[in-house]
């Protein structure tokens, strides 16, 4: 009986495959090096379709991918290749990354245009890219890609300055009269793995605009498109990327988008140094115990520099209003501030400076802007309000690199995923909600969602690390929350967030006096080797509820965890420690009395010894957190 059932199942599978192949003129298959992820491409009618399988089960159903609208695609040949190498990023979550993939290249005729469709498959993700030859100048091309998912699959995606959207089932999109605006990266929760839909290496595809995402009711698919005007005979598209992981947190440390990005273009990147920075903007109006009130003035900035030098913080970032007016070729500096005195003092203290620039304030001219910042001795620029302008933003990154300036994009920047590999001076960006004055969009739950959604596309400038939570909630700052008592967090959670969110520039926003007052807790932030990690992993995570992140440099580990407003305990297994070695550990913890709304600044610190195999019961208050600094005993 068993043999008869097995034969019947094989016959059903045979006729199922025969039906699909019969409707396709060609079928091409490429698998990941470990064989778990498989992509099938076929010519269906006049289009090329793809399908994605994970451990033998379809996770993306047959979906179209094309480059020239309304032009028939004819597959004329194919080639395969493989690669297994390692490379070292200038900075990042890992000190070494393995680039191991199998690749299928299809030669495609698109009328008179010849194209190559490249499908590159890794163990935990894949990318599609077109290369075209024979285009006419002025022609318009559209990179179009469908994602046909199961109706029960659950979506999450960013929503600008609002909380991320989700959970939202595909079936809800089908029945909805109003489809919410989709943004990348989309996180998809399927019955088995988690997926993320995004792109990589837009930087290397001149002419293409920002990816547009929507749900097409007629096609029953999420669709993405980028349009470009052809300027040269040869055209290369961005990579369409699908990440695949069994655990949602692994999407955040997935290296496929970095591997797909173009290699480092800066010949000598030794001047690019990730690190931490103090920031003045959210401290304005804060009055210290000695009666001094911070503002936009020389004395305030000297205090920041003193603290940065004392605590080995690499940078001090001066935000808006250091100038009064911008005219072509000239900055009119604020009379409140002796900028040259600040520059000289910072140099004496060995603290690097970064300056903000708001493009709305005037057309200084980018060809002069970066040269001017360099002439001032600045280490970087925080660039605001450049909008979704891809060529402008691309030129700004390249121009800042020529002037050896780090660049931090703010205010809804272009999501150049992978650009930190190509031009590693692109140190971070505010592709998230990071505005303290609009707390309606920033709860503990929203933070966790952003850490599991927005962070997939690359480093984020989120400005975590406030310690004066009571004062901020009272409204003691000029630029605090617009609604008082709306900031729900604990000081330990704030410290943990600085580790959880990956960035080449960790911007800490509070007053030096607040960090000095809690110097024993600030130690967790101070000791972090930001951007110089050998290894990073998400130990445990659940969307909107909790996340626990571990990062290693050498023999030292930093672990940060946060919880939602329910609070709770995570059992953290220290299996990542070397067996047979003893470690000293410092715990930075909420207390039994800590609460994210009513008692946010209560914390405790204790120390001990741990080893591989131990389990830490990390108890967190409502809206709270837990931190560990673990180092090997010599």
TrEMBL record:
Residues 532-630 form the Glycosyl-hydrolase 97 C-terminal oligomerisation domain. Residues 30-263 form the Glycosyl-hydrolase 97 N-terminal domain. InterPro entries: Aldolase_TIM, GH, GH-type_carb-bd, GH97_C, GH97_catalytic, GH97_N, Glyco_hydro_b, Glycosyl_hydrolase_97. Signal peptide: none annotated. The keyword Hydrolase applies. Pfam families: GH97_C, GH97_N, Glyco_hydro_97. SUPFAM superfamilies: (Trans)glycosidases. Its cofactor is Ca(2+). Residues 282-430 form the Glycosyl-hydrolase 97 catalytic domain. Keywords: Calcium, Glycosidase, Hydrolase. One of its GO terms (molecular function) is hydrolase activity, acting on glycosyl bonds. Monomer. PANTHER family: GLUCAN 1,4-ALPHA-GLUCOSIDASE SUSB-RELATED. This is Alpha-glucosidase. It comes from Algoriphagus aquimarinus.
């Amino acid at each position: 009986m068993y043999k008869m059932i097995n034969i019947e199942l094989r016959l059903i599978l045979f006729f199922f495959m025969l039906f699909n192949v019969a409707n396709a003129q060609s079928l091409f298959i490429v698998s990941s090096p470990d064989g778990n992820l498989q992509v099938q491409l076929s010519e269906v009618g006049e289009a090329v379709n793809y399908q994605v399988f994970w451990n033998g089960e379809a996770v993306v159903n047959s979906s179209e991918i094309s480059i020239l609208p309304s032009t028939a695609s004819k597959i004329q040949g194919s080639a395969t290749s493989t690669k297994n190498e390692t490379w070292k990023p200038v900075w990042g979550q890992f000190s070494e990354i393995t680039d191991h993939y199998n690749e299928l290249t299809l030669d495609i005729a698109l009328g008179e245009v010849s194209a190559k469709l490249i499908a590159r498959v890794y163990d935990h993700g894949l990318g599609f890219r077109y290369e075209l030859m024979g285009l006419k100048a002025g022609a318009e091309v559209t990179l179009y890609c469908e994602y046909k998912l199961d109706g029960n699959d659950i979506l999450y995606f960013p929503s600008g300055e609002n909380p991320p959207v989700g959970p939202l089932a595909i079936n809800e999109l089908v029945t909805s009269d109003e489809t919410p605006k989709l943004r990348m990266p989309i996180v998809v929760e399927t019955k088995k793995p988690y997926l993320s839909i995004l792109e990589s290496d837009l930087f290397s595809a001149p002419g293409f605009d920002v990816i547009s995402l929507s749900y097409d009711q007629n096609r029953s698919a999420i669709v993405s498109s980028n349009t470009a005007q052809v300027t040269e005979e040869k055209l290369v598209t961005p990579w369409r990327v699908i990440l695949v992981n069994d655990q949602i947190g692994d999407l955040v440390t997935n290296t496929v988008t970095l591997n797909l990005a173009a290699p480092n273009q800066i010949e000598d990147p030794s001047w690019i140094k990730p690190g931490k920075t103090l920031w003045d903007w959210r401290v304005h109006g804060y009055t210290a115990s000695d009666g001094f009130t911070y503002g936009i003035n020389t004395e305030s900035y000297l205090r920041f520099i003193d603290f940065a030098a004392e605590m080995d913080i690499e940078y001090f970032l001066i935000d808006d209003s250091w100038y009064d007016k911008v005219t072509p070729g000239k900055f009119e500096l604020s009379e409140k501030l002796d900028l040259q005195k600040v520059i000289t003092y910072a140099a004496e203290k060995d603290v690097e400076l970064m300056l903000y620039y708001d493009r709305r304030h005037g057309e200084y001219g980018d060809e002069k802007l970066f040269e001017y910042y360099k002439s001032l001795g600045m280490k970087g620029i925080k660039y605001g309000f450049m909008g979704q302008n891809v060529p402008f933003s691309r030129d700004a990154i390249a121009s800042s690199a020529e002037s050896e300036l780090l660049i931090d994009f703010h205010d809804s920047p272009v999501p150049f995923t992978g650009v930190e590999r190509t031009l590693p001076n692109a140190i971070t960006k505010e592709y998230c909600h990071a505005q303290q004055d609009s707390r309606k969009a920033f709860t503990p739950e929203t933070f966790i969602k952003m850490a599991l959604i927005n962070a997939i596309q690359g480093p984020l400038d989120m400005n975590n690390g406030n310690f004066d939570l009571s004062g901020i909630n009272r409204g003691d700052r000029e630029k605090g929350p617009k609604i008082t008592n709306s900031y729900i967090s604990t000081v330990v959670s704030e410290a943990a967030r600085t580790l959880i969110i990956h960035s080449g520039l960790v911007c800490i926003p509070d007053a030096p006096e607040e960090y000095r007052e809690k110097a024993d807790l600030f130690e967790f932030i101070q000791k972090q080797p930001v951007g110089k990690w050998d290894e990073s992993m998400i130990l445990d995570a659940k969307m909107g509820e909790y996340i626990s992140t571990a990062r290693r440099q050498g023999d030292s580990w930093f672990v940060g965890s946060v919880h939602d407003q329910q609070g709770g305990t995570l059992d953290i297994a220290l299996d990542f420690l070397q067996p047979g070695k003893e470690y000293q550990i410092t715990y930075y913890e909420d207390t039994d009395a800590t609460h994210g709304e009513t008692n946010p600044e209560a914390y405790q610190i204790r120390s001990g010894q741990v080893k591989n195999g131990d389990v830490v019961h990390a108890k967190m208050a409502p809206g709270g957190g837990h931190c560990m600094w673990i180092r090997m005993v010599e």
